[in-house]
Amino acid sequence: MRLNNKIMLGICIAAILLVTSAAYASEKIDVTSGTYYFHGTDEPAFEDGYYANIEVDGEVYYFDDDAYDAMCEYDNNFARGLMVQFGDHGNDADIKNILGMKVGSISGNENVDPFTEPILKSFSFEYEKGTVGYNKDANIINKVYDSEGKELT
C-alpha cells in the first residue's frame, strides 16, 4: 500500500512539473533591429489569427491579437502592415444596364501576398508556446514592451 502511495505521489509531482513548465512565463527578449514579416491572407498562420511574426536568433515568434494591436500603435511600420493586410483591396464594379444606368454592383476582395517591413523602434517581448497553423510548438508573443520597459497595451 505504501508503494502505491509513493508511486501516486511521484506521478502527481511529475504532472505538476509538466503543467508548470508548460505555463512558464518566458524572459524578455530584446529586439533592436530586423524585419516584421506579415503573412499573406491565404497562409495558415493568417487563417489562425496570427497576422505577423519576427525572427530573432533563428527562432520565429508570432504576435497574438493583443501584441499585434499594441505594436500597431507603437511602430509606424507595424501599423503600415495592418493597413496593407486589412485595407480595401476589393475590385468593386458597377453593373449597368444597356442604357448605362447602375442596376447593382459586384464587390470582391483580392488575397494579400506576404510582405515585410523594417523594424523602426526597439522593443522587447515575452512569449508562450502554442499552435500556429501546422506548427504545434510555435512561439507566440503575448506581451510587448517599449524601449523603456513599459508594457504596451
List the helices and strands and how they pair.
Elements: H1 2-22, E1 29-31, E2 35-38, H2 44-47, E3 52-56, E4 59-63, H3 65-74, H4 76-86, E5 93-96, E6 102-106, E7 115-118, E8 123-132, E9 135-145, E10 151-152
Parallel strand pairs: 4-9
Antiparallel strand pairs: 1-8, 2-3, 2-7, 3-4, 5-6, 8-9, 9-10
Helix pairs in contact: 3-4
Poorly predicted ranges: 17-24, 105-109
Distance linking N and C termini: 53 Å
Derived structural class = alpha+beta
Instruction: Specify the overall morphology.
Output: globular
What does this structure look like?
With 153 residues, the protein is an alpha+beta fold. The chain has one domain (28-152). Helices cover 30% and strands 35% of the residues. The protein contains 4 helices and 10 strands; from the N terminus they run H-E-E-H-E-E-H-H-E-E-E-E-E-E. The protein has helices at residues 2-22, 44-47, 65-74, 76-86, and strands spanning 29-31, 35-38, 52-56, 59-63, 93-96, 102-106, 115-118, 123-132, 135-145, 151-152. Strands 1, 2, 3, 4, 7, 8, 9 and 10 form an 8-stranded mixed β-sheet that branches. Strands 5-6 form a two-stranded antiparallel ribbon. Strand 5 (93-96) and strand 6 form a beta hairpin. Helix 3 packs across helix 4 (76-86). The longest helix has 21 residues, at 2-22. It starts with a helix and ends with a strand.
Quick tags:
10 strands; two-stranded antiparallel ribbon; 153 residues; alpha+beta; 4 helices
